[in-house]
Amino acid sequence: MKLLEEKVLKEGAAISENILKVDGFINHQVDPVLMKAIGEDFAAHFKDQGITKVVTIESSGIAPALMTASAMQVPLLILKKSPSKILNKNMYQTVVTSFTKGTSYELTLAGHLISEQDHVLIIDDFLANGEAATGAIRLLRKAHATIAGIGILIEKTFQPGRAKLEEQGFSVYSQVRIAKLEKDHIELLAQEESSTL
Ligand code: 5GP
After folding, report:
1. 58 lines ligand 1 (CB under 6 A)
2. Which atom of ligand 1 is nearest to the CA of 124?
3. Residue 34: which residues within 8 A CB-CB, separation 6 or more?
4. Distance CA 19, CA 114 (A)
5. Rounded distance between C-alpha atoms, residue 160 and residue 3, angstroms
6. Alpha helices, DSSP H only, in the chain?
7. What is the pLDDT of residues 92-139, one digit of tens each?
């Protein structure tokens, strides 16, 4: 997606070979015009697939996922990272390892908000090792919901996330695909490589 590619190249900051900072337009400050365009792009890509809900993980996925849900006119479901303090039998939980922090968190979903009738689109800001998306998939499967696909804003193609998701048979659409990061240098995957993968 051209607009997001330009923004990543202009305002993203590679702080190491593995981590891209996007604090100025996604993770800390949010660019609402860009988020609207991102939502419309995901809605166009996943149209006519009978999607009933958009699902994301708090907190950086919320802005783009909300715009996607708005464009698709379906509800947004936010998977929580903190365990519920209220004892509730109808609660799905799974442990996920955080890529950026190296710690684990418990992903939680209230059972009454999802059902086997749901066909969902998962949206997240980054795809690295695929742990967050795999955790979301585990929870949704516990609820017997089906998954239409996974929409990612920024995929780091040198990390194993896509392979992990595609091995399980999921369709992954990334708006920006990064080939390589070096300190202060960002390299996108060439268009033709991007379309053949
Ligand atoms: P994964 O679970 O695929 O290993 O990592 C995805 C999650 O880690 C995303 O939800 C995102 O919050 C975070 N993440 C992974 N790589 C990066 C990165 O390069 N920059 C930032 N800001 N977050 C990242």
Report:
1. no
2. 10
3. 3, 4, 7, 25
4. 33
5. 25
6. 2-11, 32-45, 62-72, 131-142, 161-167, 191-196
7. 999 998 887 788 999 999 999 999 999 999 999 999 999 999 999 999
Residues of the chain with pLDDT under 70: 83-88, 192-197
Q: What is the pTM of this model?
A: 0.95
- Give the residue from 22, 16, 18, 17 showing the smallest Cα distance to 175: 22
Per the listing, tokens 């950086």 go with 60
Closest ligand 1 atom to 18 CA: 19
Question: What is the rounded radius of gyration, in angstroms, for the C-alpha atoms of the chain?
Answer: 16
The SS3 assignment for 104 reads: strand
Q: Is 128's C-beta closer than 6 angstroms to any atom of ligand 1?
A: yes
